[in-house]
Design brief:
The chain is α/β, with parallel strands linked by helices and 229 residues long. 29% of the residues lie in helices and 17% in strands. The chain has seven helices and ten strands. A seven-stranded parallel sheet has the order 1-10-9-6-2-3-5, covered by helices on one side. Strands 4-8-7 form a three-stranded antiparallel sheet, with no helix packed on it.
Length: 229
C-alpha cells in the first residue's frame, strides 16, 4: 500500500487528477464511488472539470459502494452522489447503479458484466470499516446487507448525514477486486484506523487492513490522519 501525505486540498486535486487520467486513457472506465463526507472536495473538482470540458463521464459507469436502507428523501447514497457529483457531469443516467436491497447478490454480477471495477474511491470509518463492511465482516463477502454498528452511527451524529440502521455495501472481496483503489482519510479521528489499516493484521477485526492485499492501493492522508504512522 502506497501512502501520500499532503494538505486536504492537495489530496483532493491529486485524486481528481488520477480519475481524470484514467478516463482520458479509458473513457468507458468503471468506477466504484463512496458517498462519504470525505470525498465531497474530490467530487466538486470533478464537477468543475466536466463543466470546463476537461473531463467526460459520458461513456463511464459508476457503481455506488453503499446504499442506505430506508433513507429519507435526499439522504440516500444515490441522492448524495447525484447531488455532489453526477448532477454536475455528463454521465449517462443509465450507467449509474446502486445496490438493490431486494437482490444485493445481483450487484456483483452487474459489476462483472460491466467489465469489473477499474478504480474504487473509498473513505475509512473510525472503527476501520470500508464501504459499510463493519468489523467481523469476512474477506470473501460480496455485496450484502449490513447492520451498522453504534460506533459508525455515532460518527455521523450531529452531521447532515442521516444514517439508517442498515445499509447495503459492496463486500470486501468486491472492493479488493478493483484494479486500483484510492482511499482518502483526513482528520485526527481517523489516525487510529489508518494506523491499523496499514500495520494491522489482515483479518476481519479491521476490515480496511484487507486493503494490504491488493497491489494497487494508495492511501491519501492529511497530516492529522497520518499522525500515528
Amino acid at each position: 500500500m502506497k501512502t501520500v501525505i499532503a494538505a486536504p486540498a492537495d489530496l483532493n486535486r491529486q485524486i481528481a487528477g488520477k480519475i481524470q487520467a484514467l478516463l482520458m486513457e479509458k473513457p468507458d472506465a468503471v468506477l466504484g464511488l463512496t458517498a462519504g463526507r470525505s470525498t465531497r472536495g474530490v467530487y466538486a473538482l470533478l464537477g468543475q472539470m466536466c463543466a470546463q470540458k476537461e473531463l467526460s463521464l459520458a461513456k463511464a459507469s459508476i457503481f455506488a459502494v453503499t446504499e442506505y436502507v430506508g433513507a429519507q428523501p435526499g439522504h440516500s447514497c444515490r441522492d448524495i452522489l447525484l447531488r455532489e457529483l453526477i448532477g454536475h457531469t455528463d454521465l449517462n443516467p443509465a450507467n449509474f447503479f446502486v445496490p438493490d436491497e431486494n437482490a444485493p447478490e445481483q450487484y456483483d454480477a452487474a459489476i462483472r458484466s460491466a467489465g469489473g471495477l477499474d478504480l474504487c474511491l473509498l473513505g475509512i470509518g473510525i472503527n476501520g470499516h470500508i464501504g459499510y463492511n463493519e468489523p467481523a465482516t469476512p474477506f470473501d463477502s460480496l455485496t450484502h446487507l449490513q447492520k451498522l454498528t453504534d460506533a459508525t452511527r455515532r460518527q455521523y451524529a450531529g452531521t447532515d448525514r442521516q444514517l439508517t440502521e442498515q445499509a447495503l455495501t459492496m463486500g470486501i472481496k468486491t472492493l479488493v477486486s478493483s484494479r486500483e483503489t484510492l482511499l482518502l482519510a483526513t482528520g485526527p479521528e481517523k489516525a487510529d484506523a489508518v494506523f491499523k489499516m496499514i500495520y494491522g493484521r489482515t483479518d476481519s477485526t479491521v476490515p480496511a487492513a484487507f486493503l494490504q492485499i491488493p497491489l494497487e492501493v494508495t492511501a491519501y492522508l492529511d497530516s492529522a490522519a497520518a499522525g500515528k504512522l
